[in-house]
Amino acid sequence: MTPDTWKQLKHLFQTAIELSSDERAAFLAEACNGDNELRAGVDRLLASHDEAGAFLQSAAAVDAGIVMESVTPASLIGQCIGPYEIMRELGHGGMGTVYLAGRADDQYRKQVAIKVVNRGMDTDLILRRFMMERQILANLEHPNIARLLEGGSTPDGLPYFVMESVSGEPILEYCSAQEFSTNERLELFLQVCAALQYAHQNLVVHRDIKPSNILVTSEGAPKLLDFGIAKLLSPEDAGEATASMVRLMTPEYASPEQLRGLGITTSSDVYSLGVVLYELLTGSHPYHLTSRQPEEIVAAILRDEPLKPSVATRRDNEKIARSGAGPKSDTRNPRALRGDLDNIVLKSLRKEPERRYASVQEFAADIRRHLDGLPVTATPDTFAYRASKFVRRNTAGVIAAVAIVITLITATLITTSQARVARRERDKAQRRFKDVRNLTNSFLFDFHDSIADLNGATKAREMVVKKAQEYLDSLAQEAGDDRELLWELSTAYLKLGDVQGRPGFSRTGDTGAAQQSYEKSLETRRRLAALEPNNAQYQLGLAITLSRFGPLFQVLGKPGPAVERMREATAITDKLVPGSHDLTTYQTATRNSAFLGDALSEMGNYDEALAMYQKCLSLAEENRAPFPDIAVKHRFAVCRERLGFIFRIKGEWQKSLDNHLEMLALEEELSALEPTNLDYARAEATAFDHVGDLYRELKNYPKALENGQRGLALYEGFLKQDPQNARGTKDVGDCSHHVAETLLAAGDYRGAISLLQRTVAIRRELVALDTSNVEYPDDLAESLTLTGETLAAVGNTTKAIEALQEARAIREPIVLAHRQRIDYRRGLARLYTDLGADFVVLKNPDEAEHWYRKGLELWTELQDQHALWATEIDRPKEVDESLSRVHSRKPQTR
Prior knowledge:
Blueprint: H1 3-16, H2 21-32, H3 36-52, E1 80-81, E2 84-92, E3 96-103, E4 111-117, H4 124-138, E5 148-153, E6 159-164, E7 168-170, H5 171-177, H6 182-201, E8 204-205, E9 214-217, E10 222-224, E11 231-232, H7 238-242, H8 256-259, H9 266-282, H10 294-303, H11 309-323, H12 334-337, H13 340-348, H14 360-371, H15 383-393, H16 395-451, H17 458-476, H18 483-501, H19 511-531, H20 536-555, H21 559-576, H22 583-602, H23 606-624, H24 629-649, H25 653-673, H26 678-697, H27 701-721, H28 726-745, H29 749-769, H30 775-793, H31 797-817, H32 822-841, H33 845-864, H34 875-889
Antiparallel strand pairs: 1-2, 2-3, 3-4, 4-6, 5-6, 7-9, 8-11, 9-10
Helix pairs in contact: 1-3, 6-9, 6-14, 9-13, 13-14, 16-17, 17-18, 18-19, 18-20, 19-20, 20-21, 20-22, 21-22, 22-23, 22-24, 23-24, 24-25, 25-26, 26-27, 26-28, 27-28, 28-29, 28-30, 29-30, 30-31, 30-32, 31-32, 32-33, 33-34
């Protein structure tokens, strides 16, 4: 068997394994196209899989980079491995083969399953994964997880491990065969949750939860199988966890972050469990999948929202009724799913990890609350909802309580005097509560503010975050209508969000957590503004919180919501500025105009963005007279930075350079006045970076390198003092990318490649750090694209295409999920065009035509939206001409 044949065989098997028997036959007949040998090979694999009952079978693909012949060691049948004699093969997966074996030493009778690495797959990479699976299973002792008995190596040196032999049915088939009710399905599912929660507590993420990996024994006990692609969460395994060695997953059950190639956490298993529960309750997949093609599955999961389980079940039942087939034995009841179960399942399936259940334990707890008739966290907590739950649980008690109410009215007269005593105690408790509140606020605000500008303070800020989160969430439960306390809470949540993940500032790098804190601040400040609409403090506070969402939504790839929130914030400050003598009001107004311009620019609305930046500069001018010079210089610098950016887009290079040089001069002044202020020092480094970019555009490469390298040296100094600072890491990655661009433009290919290797490593680290930040994977794709362009420049076209294809795998899902972001589409258009040019060099006109055509579609789309930069105005025409040349050179068939 050749490597190509094995690759084709493996692909067909992995696709067919997820189809029903009828679909499978039709699919293979078409896919094999009369190749009897290929069809026979697939049939053998499928037969082995079916006989094994899906035991430890991994249906997902091994990394496409591993293309080799894999040979099942059939000679092992009848042989002994340790004290066990191999009886027959149970199943064959991408990595190993599973055998049924029995004790051969007559000490006692026992049948086991033995998994052995397939010969030909015993590369260092596969062996490491196999040994990891063995170590993972050795650490997991749970009644609902298939148990590891022992392990070792065959005489040929192939690793193996011995597991209990599990005989059972996949969970979906089992529940259907038993005609389980909704509640019975939930009770069984809770056992699966308990097993997975146990694995998570032992620092293991499964990463391939699906029905075929959950077998239910004849005794009704579910068993969780196949930890072969599990990811250890312990620090010593971080290198393996972040490497893109092997992507083993089943797309239909993979979380959005898995499909995007982002960091995987326990939240990914929560999502996959949600898919299984959806199927368990409805009998259908949460997404309408029209085919089994991986790219179409990925597109559906990233793009579509699942129907409520109750709606999906009702529609399915209606289809059955219309077909006249009669009810199925396991026809579901939509009423049983409506309400709480709809909300529980949909919460587990949210595309953003931070909006799902925080753990499997929380997921299971909500299911248990539903089964017990208690309110669930997935359903909005209203008085009417809680009351209805209470009445259902305590019908008899409620009726009796009504009779008692009359007695209580009489008792009220007696307790009046007792209430006076209670009131005195309450007042005393409130005074103590206020003292504790003041002490905690002093810790939260004063301590954090005192270290906010210090290098090396990331660990200290993380400690503040942890304690503050616990304190604030507890305090929020006691706030009531206390406006003073509500204002303190709104301010505290704002500061907490800043520490967690405010873009552009020192932070721990948790963007999702920052959004949650900002939303809590926003909700509280909207409440205060509604209570007192004319209170200027509350209105300004609302505008300040709204302003945080501009940069935040930028890194989340959501310019539309950013524009909406920033327009609201700008409208508020527009009313507050006239007649105001408050520095914070002016600074907030300039910030809001700048952030609104940023969001508009991301959507390609460059003219309105320019108007917003000019408004920002005008407001900064108004700041100059009434306020101290140092307080407004930084605002001027921000406005100059934005104007330089928009003039660059428009191709007005000298105007752009002038504005960035003005920014640099202002930030150098500020850094000299306050040398310990990290914000000013970082802004100075940013100004050097921008000036270097502009000199590169003007083809003054010596000055471009001089300024870019000065900015990079400053950034690296900051990061050295605080190596865990996510913002500092991003700054170094961004600036080193820009310097690499200059080296490439100047013809220093070796220097560019060397710097890009480091840049790519930095950006991979950031992708693993924060899965909700879309900027990180997009930055990585940008550096991979530049790597491809540099490799192409030195004539290494094959390696160039490899880098571009990795960038494409990252960028396409991002563009699909964030169509509003113009810059994401621009980057993908450039990438497609590069691929077209590289395939021209390789004399592959079909591939070149394909990629040029895809690039032209995007360039034309940007042109129609008037979203091309000045340097790109001719790109659609140039790519069209390249496409025509390739097409004209192709052999014409008649």
